[in-house]
Design goal:
There is one protein chain. The protein is an alpha+beta fold and 201 residues long. Helices cover 18% and strands 40% of the residues. The protein has a six-stranded antiparallel beta barrel with strand order 1-2-5-4-3-12.
Length: 201
């Protein structure tokens, strides 16, 4: 009888965990659908079906591929935050490299700045660093960093993260800023993949 009660408790606990996960996913789906409705560019909703850790970075595997017109280089967002780029496409799945991965670079700027203010790339596969910021551009802690819109496939205004600190030496031509990503790959269940963005004019 005691063993049967233990099994019942285990089953109820498992059910509670399942319900909590479904509730969390439902909230994430609502947020992502709201983003889909708000934006004008083409978006494809995708589910994260696996995660692979490589060299300290978490790569996502999503359930959309060539059959959904997904192509390498397409940006991937979660709640309007750029979380990575498609690096490999199969028939029905794709691999998303996080912005923190080596070799992933993104043209970035600050809200209110009409041009590219620097290039964001991964640092130690954990954080982001923004390089080549002109000396006349103010860099302050907790400032938002967004995509500049001057990079192919990536529209302007996608959030990249928040500045934790700036660095500027008199002998250097540019400034550097260190950025904290807002969304972590191991916390994402749903993403939106941005299709080909038509240029204005």
């Amino acid at each position: 009888e005691l063993a049967a009660l233990r099994l019942q408790v285990q089953a109820l606990t498992a059910k509670q965990v399942e319900v909590a996960e479904l509730r969390k996913e439902n909230e994430e789906l609502k947020d992502e659908l709201a983003f889909l409705e708000k934006e004008k560019y083409p978006l494809t909703l995708a589910r994260v079906i696996a995660r692979v850790k490589e060299n300290g970075s978490v790569f996502l595997i999503v359930n959309r591929g060539e059959s959904s017109a997904i192509e390498a280089g397409m940006p991937v967002v979660s709640h309007g935050v750029l979380v990575g780029k498609i690096v490999k496409v199969n028939r029905s799945t794709s691999i998303v490299a996080p912005l923190t991965a080596a070799g992933i670079k993104t043209a970035a700027t600050f809200p209110g700045n009409p041009t590219t203010a620097g290039i964001v790339e991964g640092e130690l596969n954990v954080n982001l660093v923004m390089r080549f910021i002109p000396k006349d551009v103010p860099v302050t802690s907790d400032s938002s960093v967004i995509t500049s819109g001057l990079e192919e496939r990536i529209p302007r205004g996608l959030m990249l993260g928040l500045i934790t600190k700036g660095e500027s030496n008199p002998q250097d031509l540019f400034q550097t800023a260190y950025i904290r990503p807002i969304v972590k790959g191991d916390e994402i269940a749903l993403v939106s993949i941005i299709g080909n963005v038509e240029e204005d004019g």
